[in-house]
Automatic annotation (TrEMBL):
Signal peptide: none annotated. It comes from Paenibacillus polysaccharolyticus. Heme c binds at residues 56, 59-60, 95. This is Cytochrome c550. Keywords: Electron transport, Heme, Iron, Metal-binding, Transport.
Length: 118
């Protein structure tokens, strides 16, 4: 009887492994999700500044000097626009994700505006 139980458990484990192999995302799909692609937009500095004032200054300060969140006044000298975009979309550390709160184009405007801060 013990032999039949072990055979059943082994069969169930193999079946589960096969199902997972075909349903879990592959490495390429995970990397694609991990690195969001920034949409092509022409930067609108006025819109970006308005969005930053409405969404970012409570943590990063009214002059982007930092506060609860890190200073962003010179963020463009250490991070490129793609990294800034990705951080805003996905969040990082204590920073929440803004995907779903802001449109992708709005996030792109903010990222491009911040990338110019050097």
């Amino acid at each position: 009887m013990h032999k039949w139980i072990m055979s059943g458990v082994f069969f169930a484990a193999c079946a589960l492994a096969i199902v997972l192999m075909f349903t879990l995302p592959g490495k390429e799909e995970v990397e694609q999700e991990a690195k969001p692609s920034m949409p092509e937009v022409a930067m609108d500095a006025g819109q970006a500044e308005t969005l930053v004032k409405a969404n970012c200054i409570s943590c990063h300060g009214d002059q982007l000097q930092g506060g609860v969140g890190p200073a962003l006044a010179n963020i463009g000298s250490k991070d490129d626009v793609e990294k800034i975009y990705s951080t805003i979309v996905k969040g990082k550390g204590g920073m929440p994700s803004f995907k779903g709160r802001l449109q992708d184009e709005e996030i792109a405007h903010i990222a491009m505006w911040l990338a110019e801060k050097k």
